[in-house]
Design a protein that fits this description.
Serine Threonine Protein Phosphatase 5, Tetratricopeptide repeat; elongated; mainly alpha
């Protein structure tokens, strides 16, 4: 029943993620939330890609895997999702799932902040204290030149 709903409405899988992740109307079940996250993420839904990345990052009913978390966050971030951009900034800042890279961290944090995700401002500002003026300029340039991509599915 639920699986056939996906063919009727693309956002249905994301609805089920919420239901199972927070226990809205059903018992909380992270395994089901991950299942629905994967379905929606593979359809290119940025919000579901963020949730699936979070599941990998935190080990919610799947093995913790920072590289896979980054893979899913990157797909959502490339679509312009501010939360995913913030997650990418954090990953590059910490070197979690990707090599540590302050310039790329700055770029992603800057992009998230430009969309109103203001929690990233303090991290970005702290990061600036460890960067050279050239690195900051490069991060700003990358931010200016960045363009969103449309729905990113695993085949892309």
């Amino acid at each position: 029943m639920l699986d056939s709903t996906l063919t009727k409405r693309k956002g249905a899988a994301y609805d089920y993620i919420t239901f199972y992740a927070i226990g809205e109307g059903v018992p909380r079940d992270y395994a089901e939330a991950v299942k629905w996250s994967r379905m929606a993420a593979e359809q290119g839904q940025a919000g579901a890609q963020v949730v699936l990345g979070n599941a990998y990052s935190n080990g919610w009913s799947i093995d913790k895997d920072d590289a896979k978390a980054v893979e899913w966050w990157r797909r959502a971030a490339n679509q312009g999702d501010a939360m995913a951009q913030a997650k990418m900034g954090g990953a590059y800042f910490m070197g979690a799932g990707v090599p540590k890279d302050f310039v790329l961290a700055y770029m992603w944090l800057n992009l998230a902040a430009a969309q109103g995700f203001l929690d990233t401002l303090s991290i970005r500002d702290s990061l600036e204290q460890t960067m050279t003026p050239e690195q900051i300029a490069e991060g700003q340039r990358l931010s200016r030149e960045w363009k969103p991509k449309h729905s990113e599915t695993p085949a892309q």
